[in-house]
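Board notes (copied after class):
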Amino acid sequence: MVRKRKPTHPGIILEEHYIKPLKITKSFLADSVGISRNTLYKILKKKSRITAEVAIRLAKALRTTPELWLNLQQQYDVWEAEHNKEIHSENIRPIVPLVSISYR
């Protein structure tokens, strides 16, 4: 089932729900979690994905879970893929399993 509403990129959630309310700088967060400022900026600008490693680092620093960040990223990625015209224009056919018939 294709969702109509595009999920929010985790970088936006990171900025709106953590960086701004905590009144911390992006540089401070990057240094705190041990990632480069460039990596953090790319995530915040939706130019980069949150990897498992970054999810673990964010979870430890922000007292969340890695699953939160990975689930947000996955929801965003799936929506993007579902709305990718190239994927939908390809001739992908469902694989129909052969039915096994057993006689008693």
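Comment from the instructor: The two ends are 39 Å apart (CA to CA). The helical segments are 10-22, 26-33, 37-44, 52-62, 66-82, 85-89.
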